[in-house]
Specification:
Length: 306
């Protein structure tokens, strides 16, 4: 049996379909690489490195930030540790650095699971499952969360994939986001309480917009969906090559970030993060999911190569 610590991200599980290849990891249960014909569709990281900048990670039981790591739920106050000491926030949940169990592995699919045990700051019990599969339309990712504890639990989920054009500079790339509104944030990247219509502004990416010198670390409200209920983001070059990221109706927000990426270089990848709620939802209640004992939640997203 291969030693668990043969790589900093634990065991590696690969799935393939045609020229598509995806590698999933044990630590965090996320995506380490997604390539088509050997070219990166999602930015990844080497097998001998840890994930950085949240690349490919699952963000649960909350995405983004909780102000001061504090929130009140069902009349009880809770305090989480700070992951960002400079911003005094608890960020991106509890499972990014935990070991996920492989439940099933076929040539084209992998199912992973992780139990969130009650702990100070989050005294609730959840079972998280994720199924990754490859097909002719690309990568499909199906999430499920079940409350296995005796009390109702607050819940949110996000994912942190980085779209890329084979690692090339994105100065001339076009980004599309299905979002007619953005959530204004302060210097701690926490919501100010204002949601702004982006029509006619530099933040309107609905028809595709050259990234250029834009600096994005911005939560958007999804307002545009197709007849199938899917909201679609895209990153493409001048010839229309690149990738689309789609999210179902379970994900009503999307965060875009184009700063320093997992490679250590700026503007060579764009994180397009489906989220079930905006930042600090444990305090605002906006988009917050309350799971009753035994209740299940599910959501689906995916990536189509172009």
């Amino acid at each position: 049996m291969t030693a668990r610590w043969n790589t900093p991200s634990g065991h590696q599980w690969t799935i393939e379909a045609g020229t598509q290849r995806v590698t999933l990891v044990e630590i965090g249960g996320g995506i380490r690489e997604y390539t088509v014909n050997g070219r990166d569709v999602l930015a990844g990281y080497p097998a001998d490195a840890m994930a950085s900048k949240g690349v490919g990670q699952i963000l649960a039981p909350w995405p983004n930030r909780i102000r001061d790591g504090k929130y009140t739920f069902d009349g009880h106050e809770h305090k989480l540790g700070w992951d960002e000491t400079d911003k005094r926030t608890a960020i991106h949940g509890l499972v990014r650095w935990e070991l996920w169990d492989r439940m099933d592995h076929t040539p084209t699919g992998v199912t992973l699971a992780r139990t969130v045990q009650p702990r100070p700051g989050y005294p609730f019990a959840l079972v998280l499952r994720v199924h990754y599969s490859l097909g002719k339309d690309g990568l499909k990712v199906e999430h499920q969360a079940t409350n296995v504890g005796p009390n109702a639990a607050p819940f949110g989920l996000g994912i942190h994939p980085f779209l890329t054009l084979g690692g090339e500079s994105l100065d001339a790339a076009s980004l599309t986001l299905p979002a007619g509104k953005r959530v204004l944030t302060d210097d701690r990247l926490l919501p100010t309480g204002v949601v702004e219509d982006v029509t006619g502004t530099e933040w309107d990416y609905r028809e595709g917009r050259t990234i250029g010198s834009a600096s994005l670390d911005t939560p958007f409200v999804v307002t545009e969906r197709g007849s199938d209920g899917l909201a679609v983001s895209a990153l493409v070059d001048a010839e229309g090559r690149g990738g689309q990221l789609w999210q179902d109706s379970s994900f009503g927000w999307v965060q875009a970030y184009n700063g320093v990426g997992p490679s250590g270089a700026a503007n060579h990848a764009v994180a397009v993060e489906p989220m079930t709620c905006p930042p600090d939802a444990f305090n605002s209640g906006e988009g917050l999911i309350t799971l009753a004992p035994g209740e299940k939640w599910s959501g689906v997203w995916g990536v189509r190569p172009l």
